[in-house]
Amino acid sequence: MAYIEWSKEYSVGIQEIDEQHKKLFQLANELYNAIVGNHNEAGLKKTFQGLVDYVKEHFSHEEGMMAKVNYPEIEPHQAKHRELITKIVNYFKEYQAKVASGADSKHLSKEVLVFLRNWVLQHIMETDMKYRGHFHARGIN
Ligand SMILES: [Fe+2]
Ligand SMILES: [Fe+2]
Q1: How many angstroms does the Cα of residue 100 sit away from the middle of ligand 1?
Q2: How far apart are the CA of 58 and the centre of ligand 2, in A?
Q3: What residue ranges do the domains of the chain occupy?
Q4: What is the DSSP string of the chain?
Q5: Whole-angstrom Cα distance, residue 103 to residue 6?
Q6: What is the largest CA-CA distance in the chain?
Q7: What is the Å distance from ligand 2's center to 103 Cα?
Q8: What separation in Å is there between the alpha carbon of 94 and the centre of ligand 2?
Q9: In angstroms, what is the span from residue 2 Cα to ligand 1's centroid?
Q10: Is the distance from CB of 3 to CB of 117 less than 8 angstroms?
């Protein structure tokens, strides 16, 4: 079983965004595999970095789409994105510091996985889902 599996219930009804969310799930699964697999630090670092970069890319894309349609809730939504970026970047820094000092990074990596899954699912279901009607009313789906 995958660590995080995309299903229809996560669809926000906008194809472009769903595709990006699917990619996010895929990268999160890769991180999971890198952590619970052989835990090769170099591979894990690259996967972690890739996920951080993609999260930023997806958020800026989503924010661009919201701005285009004058979505009224854009500010609190952006604040939530910023919050996640700060947390995930901090985790990444903490992880790198642990590896650099030779400390065991396993515990921290597992904490990241729990945090990431909860956050991603909650954000899609509670925050992303809210813009659905606004986009649909403008013919974007
Ligand atoms: Fe979002
Ligand atoms: Fe999103």
Answers
A1: 32
A2: 7
A3: 14-137
A4: --SS---GGG--S-HHHHHHHHHHHHHHHHHHHHHHTT--HHHHHHHHHHHHHHHHHHHHHHHHHHHHTT-TTHHHHHHHHHHHHHHHHHHHHHHHHHHHHT---HHHHHHHHHHHHHHHHHIIIIIGGGGHHHHHHTT--
A5: 34
A6: 54
A7: 34
A8: 25
A9: 22
A10: yes
Distance 83 CA to ligand 1 centre (A): 11
Give the domain 14-137 fold. Answer: Four Helix Bundle (Hemerythrin (Met), subunit A) (1.20.120)
The answer to whether 95 and 48 are in contact (CB under 8 A) is: yes
pLDDT value at position 105?
87
Q: In this predicted model, what pLDDT tens digit does every residue of 32-85 receive, in sequence order?
A: 999 888 778 888 999 999 999 999 999 999 999 999 999 999 999 999 999 999
How far does residue 16's CA lie from ligand 2's centre (Å)?
A: 10
Other C-beta atoms lying within 10 Å of the C-beta of residue 46:
13
Q: Are 51 and 34 in contact (CB under 8 A)?
A: no
Residue ranges near ligand 1 (ion) with Cβ within 5 Å: 62, 128
